[in-house]
Design brief:
The complex is a heterodimer. Chain A is an all-alpha fold. In chain A, 43% of the residues lie in helices and 0% in strands. Chain A contains eight helices and no strands. By secondary structure, chain B is of the alpha/beta class. In chain B, strands 4, 5, 18, 19, 20 and 22 form a six-stranded mixed sheet that branches. In chain B, strands 7-15-16-17-14-21 form a six-stranded antiparallel sheet. In chain B, strand 10 (202-209) and strand 11 form a beta hairpin. Classes of the chains: A mainly alpha, B alpha/beta. Bound molecules: flavin-adenine dinucleotide (FAD). Flavin-adenine dinucleotide binds at residues 11-16, 34-37, 70-74, 77-79, 81-86, 172, 203-204, 244-247, 249, 253, 311, 393, 452-453, 485-486, 496-499, 501 of chain B.
């Protein structure tokens, strides 16, 4: 749940059900969680899977300290990071990923993969993910490939001169 | 541990390695190339973001402190993943002073003396000029925007066979249609046909001297799928070693070898340049594209074409003006950067923090098709320095493929920062004119500045205090070791560097052949182009003789 809340802060989505605490529900349409962030984080090839066991309690520890510092009352039935509001989650992630923070590398990696789950779904084969309606790829408007799984765009150019070339250009097209 | 012998050992198979491999093999030397990445063929180049596809197998992304470097990791190196924009560097670049207060380049190299070597590369790869029909929607849009604000714009010279190109925009994962001219289509097959051996998945760790004045090179064998796993190690002995592991890796190998080889020149692992790179993401107003620029495409769309294309096709060179002061000259080139690494660093234009993640960021992701990326290549200050080398390779590997943490430290000077700011401000002026778009630079806060054009970490020069290599690319105080990759380029080029890296590698060959002869290797200089053409060779005959000291 804590990781879901982190992913949902990177690319937020809609609550899956009324008592969805992990997803803050600040954005329309699915976000990183529904795009498969947890599946991606649990894919060994990312290299961060083993570290998640450490990152989760660390994140909740930071959330607890943040809440104390800013006078927030946290719902004790939830992990501390989950109990924070979206705005507070954002402020905490900004702090953890800031230059000079000793744990910056870990939190940035986590953010990178949470973002990738949405924008490129590297835990799935892209053509298949599109065929299955992957929410992130679809939201971005990525088109489907040809029947052989490869993309081709027969129309690609405005097909006309659109500017004057620089006067100091060599005959082969380089800066003179 | 396996042990082996060769005459010339080359580390890395990108531009620098492949060019040296071809000429030395064609001249009769026994050449072995060790390449840490896999050997991928046309059928292996996937259109797929799935981890383990060519998109991750062929890349190396190393996060440093203030600078991250993206490079190739396969046979053919960066040429397999590059966008194939191949301009020559403008004349003033060779006259730059940079941070050292006098000319950075060796006295004998200028645009005029390098041009015949550029010609050789243009014939060998080959490099051709594009016309407006080859220019993609994104390039066309950039050209029209430049024109609208009173600027010029040029179709860039490229190493692409446009007849074969499908404008799929997957070229970063390798070209499935054989349209992109990489080292896999010219120098490397020609080197192999002359007997060169290429060993993929061999990562070189360090070099030591043999008692007869040659070198012993230590390597690890890297697992084909999980690059974190190294199964065996071995050594190979050679009379000549050519390092061409790329500017992010060559100095690290030398640093790790210092214990065995003795002190390295001061320039090893210093003066790194990211080619002054910046990326800006414009989010277009489609209506304004139609109204202001008068552009439209099929189905009534104005643009919405971010997914379509073939890397950079149009650049604005108005600021490549030798009369402008140093650090205020730059090129502005349209580019495509795919999702994954290409969207996380895009910031919400004009937004309040956070701009690289969060709900506003998601809104711009939904408009991804209307993105236009502008790539700036400015004059930086060679401020990158490599810290102590990691246990293997040039990074602690994090992911199974691609992602690692390296020891490069980059703290931009006020010169670099002001160059970046000027270039950013100019693209903003062009792209926001008459409401065409909103634009913001990529954030440097997340993984530091970001370069696909690492340079200068082991540079050539006349001065021992500020260069690692003699002007002939031989490592100072270590005869028989040469460096022919991007690390030898003295500084930022204000344009894409592969053409210059390749021309310098071509230029280095006659001197390396001479050194090989002096070490008893039966080798000659003078091979034609990989496809047998000879006009490039004719152009450099005299120069080659003088470089070999004849
Ligand atoms: C996405 C992308 C797009 C680009 N587009 C362009 C473009 O359009 N135009 C342009 O001019 N430039 C472009 N470039 C840059 C260009 O690819 C590089 O400048 C160029 O490849 C550098 O050549 P090189 O010989 O220095 O090194 P590389 O081509 O990087 O080759 C180095 C090789 O050494 C191998 N290696 C590293 N360490 C070891 C080791 N320890 N042992 C064995 N092998 C090792 C690497 O795997 C690699 O194959 C692009 C780069 C990227 C990443």
């Amino acid at each position: 749940m804590t990781l879901e809340a982190y992913a949902d802060t990177i690319v937020p989505g809609e609550k899956r059900h009324p008592d969805d605490h992990a997803i803050a529900g600040v954005s329309e349409g699915p976000g990183s969680v529904e795009a498969g962030a947890i599946e991606l984080l649990e894919t060994e090839a990312t290299g961060i899977t083993a570290g998640l066991d450490f990152l989760v309690p660390m994140l909740n520890g930071h959330a607890k300290a943040y809440a104390e510092e800013h006078g927030r009352d946290l719902d004790p039935s939830l992990p501390e990071f989950v109990a924070l509001s979206y705005e507070d989650r954002v402020q905490l992630i900004l702090k953890l990923t800031k230059n000079g923070h000793p744990e910056k590398d870990g939190w940035v990696s986590l953010a990178l993969f949470c973002n990738m789950a949405f924008d490129s779904a590297p835990h799935l084969s892209t053509a298949q993910a599109l065929a299955d309606g992957h929410p992130g790829l679809r939201a971005m408007g990525i088109t489907t490939p040809d029947a052989d799984g490869l993309w081709r765009f027969p129309n690609y150019s405005y097909g006309r001169k659109l500017a004057e070339v620089h006067p100091d250009t060599t005959p082969s097209g380089s800066p003179a | 541990m396996t042990s082996d012998k060769t005459e010339v050992l080359i580390v890395g198979s990108g531009f620098g390695g492949a060019i040296a491999a071809y000429h030395l093999a064609a001249g009769g030397a026994k050449v072995t190339v060790l390449e840490r990445g896999p050997w991928l063929e046309t059928k292996d180049f996937d259109h797929d973001f799935l981890l383990g596809s060519s998109y991750t197998r062929a890349f190396d992304f190393v996060v440093g402190d203030g600078m991250s470097v993206l490079g190739g990791n396969c046979v053919g190196g960066g040429s397999v993943v590059y966008f194939a924009a191949m301009p020559r560097a403008p004349r003033f670049v060779f006259e730059r002073h940079g941070s050292i207060g006098r000319r950075m380049w060796p006295a004998e190299i200028s645009r005029d003396t390098l041009d015949p070597w550029y010609d050789r590369v243009a014939e060998a790869i080959p490099v051709t000029q594009q016309d407006w029909n080859d220019v993609t929607y994104s390039g066309g849009l950039w050209a029209a925007a430049c024109h609208h604000s009173g600027r010029t714009a040029n179709p860039t010279p490229v190493a692409i066979d446009n007849a074969k190109c499908t404008n799929c925009n997957w070229m970063m994962g390798g070209c499935r249609f054989d349209a992109k001219r990489s080292m896999l289509t010219n120098y490397l097959p020609a080197a192999i046909s002359h007997g060169a051996t290429i060993r993929p998945l061999h990562e070189v760790q360090k070099i030591e001297r043999t008692h007869d004045g040659g070198y012993r090179v230590h390597y690890n064998i890297v697992d084909d799928v999980d690059y974190r796993v190294h199964s065996e190690s071995g050594v190979i002995e050679a009379k000549i070693v050519i390092l061409a592991a790329g500017a992010g890796a060559t100095p690290v190998i030398l640093q790790r070898s210092e214990e065995a080889l003795g002190k390295m020149p001061h320039g090893v692992g210093r003066y790194f340049s990211g080619n002054g790179e910046r990326l800006n993401t414009a989010i277009l107003n489609e209506d304004k594209v139609r109204e202001v620029l008068g552009l439209s495409r099929e189905d009534g769309l104005a643009y919405e074409a971010n997914q379509i294309g073939k890397g950079p096709t149009v650049a604005c060179w108005d600021r490549l003006d030798e009369k402008l002061p140093e650090y205020s000259r730059y090129s502005m080139e349209q580019l495509y950067f795919p999702p994954g690494l290409g969207t996380i660093l895009a910031q919400v234009p004009g937004g309040d923090a956070p701009t690289w993640f969060g709900k506003e960021k998601k809104e711009i992701l939904k408009r991804w098709r209307s993105w236009l990326t502008i790539f700036l290549m400015t004059e930086d200050d060679n401020e990158g320095v490599f810290g102590p080398p990691p246990p293997t390779g040039n990074a602690f590997r994090v992911s199974q493929q691609m992602l690692g943490r390296g020891a490069l430290k980059y703290d931009p000077t006020p010169n670099t920062l002001s160059g970046w700011a000027k270039a950013d401000a100019e693209v903003k002026e062009i792209m926001e004119k008459d409401g065409l778009a909103t634009i913001a630079p990529w954030t440097n806060d997340v993984v530091g500045a970001y370069t696909v054009h690492p340079l200068a970490s082991c540079r050539i020069g006349d001065d021992a205090a500020t260069s690692a290599l003699h002007p002939n690319h031989e490592l100072r105080d270590h005869p028989g070791i040469f460096v022919t990759d991007g690390s030898a380029v003295p500084g930022a080029l204000t344009v894409n560097p592969a053409m210059t890296i390749a021309a310098l590698a071509e230029r280095a060959v006659p001197g390396i052949v001479k050194a090989a002869q002096n070490r008893g290797i039966d080798v000659k200089y003078g091979a034609p182009s990989p496809d047998g053409s000879i006009s490039g060779r004719r152009g450099v005959t005299k120069l080659a003789l003088s470089l070999a000291g004849d």
